[in-house]
Structure prediction request, 368 residues.
Amino acid sequence: MGRRKIEIAEVKDPNNKQVTFSKRRSGLFKKAFELSVLCGVELAIVMFSPGKRPHSFGHPSVNIVADKFLWKKPTSNVVRANYVRENDAPNEVDVMDRLSQQLSGVEVHINEEHEKATELDKREKEQEASQAQNKELLNSPVLQRMVEDYVDAIEVSECMLLLAKEPVVGISNRTITKRRRRRN
Amino acid sequence: MGRRKIEIAEVKDPNNKQVTFSKRRSGLFKKAFELSVLCGVELAIVMFSPGKRPHSFGHPSVNIVADKFLWKKPTSNVVRANYVRENDAPNEVDVMDRLSQQLSGVEVHINEEHEKATELDKREKEQEASQAQNKELLNSPVLQRMVEDYVDAIEVSECMLLLAKEPVVGISNRTITKRRRRRN
DNA sequence: AACTATATATAATA
DNA sequence: TATTATATATAGTT
Prediction:
């Protein structure tokens, strides 16, 4: 996607790696933003830079998406208000403004989110403590969620399998080439 | 990026919206994968499809990335270890090995389990409250997978909420804590 | 940090 | 779905 084709392998030169990261992170966030607007999709991305610094992107915000992901209720029939209208197609400046807002705006809700996070920690520990609670889940709508998530996991896997079809130089094929098994 | 330039505004036609979502989600995941390999970046993506279904992507895995975010908390009692040093970044073989492991780990069961998952999904729509059938899954490997994936989803949500607690733009170096996962 | 030449993603089409 | 023309991202360059 540039002057020359590159192999998808770790960039050795730290300088080049940092430049590549900056460019591609911007690209990824832009793609994420476009996807969210085009398809009315709410999404969040978290990552560590080569310098091990955390970066995130969220639309409408990381915490909102995360919140919904965790606390998703069976409100799939509820019509949401569109945060982007037809004639409000954002230009590049709008996009960058929005990105900046999203990237820095989370500070505003720190205290509020701290409560939630604490609550979530509590929940995790509870779940970790007793496996019997898993059985509790089976009698709840949570199982419905698990089924959905499982299907999604398969979709993700298929996506990765698709990626694996593209040869990566310097990588052993041993694990990959034994794919494509059918059911008996 | 296609035959014609499009405005970044919500796609009206549901059919087209679904097609666009599928294409761009694949593209986003591919970009995310490439970024993670090129720059040694670990990242996770969660999103809701137009049909409000959750999707996720993680490299090297969702829960690993979630772990690092989750345990990045500035708590004082956690052992500090700099697993994030530059030269600890996984090389391409490591990355591909892990990816391959993940791929082969799920690929073996994809066809078989996809059927089951589809079947489950169908049942879910036909009988939303059919708990009896759900209980039949209690002892199946499929359920195991579902539970794991569900835990992954929770972990991502948690890490994102925790991320929201700490602004990530322009942040100075922080000590990142290490922690080994209980699962697997 | 800006600038191209080129690779890649994808919108429209078949 | 699969293909193809075009828009976009970005690798190397300045």
Observations:
- The longest strand of chain B covers residues 43-48.
